[in-house]
Amino acid sequence: MRRREFITVVGGAAAAWPLSARAQQPAMPVVGFLNIASPRAFAGFVAAFHRGLNAGGYVEGRNVAIEYRWAEGDFDRLREQAADLVRRHVAVLVATGGTTTALLAKNATATIPVLFISGANPVDEGLATSFSRPEGNATGVSVYTSELVGKRLQLLRELLPRGAMVALLGNPTGVVHKRETKDLEQAADAAGLQLLILEVTAESGFEAAFASVLQQRAGGLFVSADAFFTSKRDQIIEFAARHRLPAAYPWREYALAGGLMSYGASIPDAYRLIGDYAARILKGANPGDLPVQQPTTFDLVLNVKTAKALGLQIPATLLARADEVIE
């Protein structure tokens, strides 16, 4: 495990400043931080955002304030929270937790700078005019979750018998669900795999979804990169382990928590980059001039301990290609 650094701001010194001096201080800029999921599951990502912000010279409570809004999976609540942050005239609106949050924030304001983390192509979704010059009021990071569907399925297939059925755990309320499902159907056909589509929109739906996996005798599970599932990763991993189901996940955090394998970009890196962009905009940069960042590496992480618990032997060829192996 990598060591995480935390910065603690001690505010006692401010109390000693003369009142007249404090009165002359400029108003502290406010960053609005919007996310579809819950704070507990995203704590590590928020810490990465702070690292990017700190590197740019901004520390929460010292020279910048942050208004956090967590929708806990409720899209109506997310829409209301976005509108509230716009009414508060925040200096920057950071829209995290997927393309749905990004589009909602972009549609909520045409003037406040919006920073997004998108799993879908931001140009195709109308978030930016181009990667190199987004124009408008929005820019951010594209983490290529949709483009990696075929590769992730290919990796899972190496652990399954040919012709086996794979279940997709998807969220139909997410913007990328249709695109992801279509791409996965094509990849499954090409790989000779049957596909069972399971649509879950709330935590209460997991029990029925995994019951369907057993009933249909699916041999593997493909988990969508949807932020709702990321926030519920512990529960999903527990269900997969209970039903002895090999599963492929989008982020390293799943494998660290006991998931079998993950393949994708680094989400903490994406949040750090967003923090860096927030600092630049607070210093006067125009979001339309900041290129949409793209990942340069995609990591394959394998959890050997989980494989053994599932009775799986990971092929040596697959282990040799892994960027990280969890023993």
Poorly predicted runs of 5 or more residues: 1-25
Give the strand content: 15-25%
Cα end-to-end separation: 12 Å
Series of secondary-structure elements, N-terminal to C-terminal:
HHEHEHEHEEHEHEHEHHEHEHEHHE
Count of helices? 14
Number of strands: 12
Q: Which sheet architecture does the biggest sheet show?
A: 7 strands, mixed
Can you walk me through this structure?
The protein is an alpha/beta fold and 327 residues long. It has 14 helices and twelve strands. The strands form two sheets. It has a seven-stranded mixed β-sheet with strand order 7-6-8-9-10-11-12, sandwiched between helices. The chain has a five-stranded parallel β-sheet with strand order 2-1-3-4-5, sandwiched between helices.
Properties at a glance:
327 residues, seven-stranded mixed β-sheet, single chain, alpha/beta
What's the quick description here?
With 327 residues, the protein is of the alpha/beta class. The chain has 14 helices and twelve strands. Helices cover 39% and strands 18% of the residues.
Topology at a glance:
Blueprint: H1 12-15, H2 19-23, E1 30-35, H3 43-55, E2 65-70, H4 75-87, E3 92-96, H5 99-108, E4 114-118, E5 138-142, H6 149-157, E6 165-170, H7 177-191, E7 194-199, H8 206-216, E8 220-223, H9 227-231, H10 233-242, E9 247-249, H11 252-256, E10 261-264, H12 267-282, E11 299-303, H13 304-309, H14 316-321, E12 324-326
Parallel strand pairs: 1-2, 1-3, 3-4, 4-5, 6-7, 6-8, 8-9, 9-10, 11-12
Antiparallel strand pairs: 10-11
Helix pairs in contact: 3-12, 4-5, 6-7
